[in-house]
Amino acid sequence: MAEKPRFIDARLVKIDSLTSTVKHFVLEYPQGTDTRFAAGQFLMVHLEKDGKPHKKPYSIASSPSLTQDKNHIELCIKLVEGGFVSSFFFGLKEGDVIHTSLPYGVFTVREPWEEDLVFVGTGTGVAPLRGMIQNLYEKNCAKNLWLIFGNRYETDILYEKEWKALAEKRPNFHFIPTVSRGKNWTGETAYVQEVVKKTFGGRTQGLDFYGCGLVPMCQQLKAALFEMNIPKEKIHFEQFT
Question: What is the sign, positive or negative, of the torsion defined by CA atoms of 150, 153, 156, 159?
Answer without folding.
Answer: positive
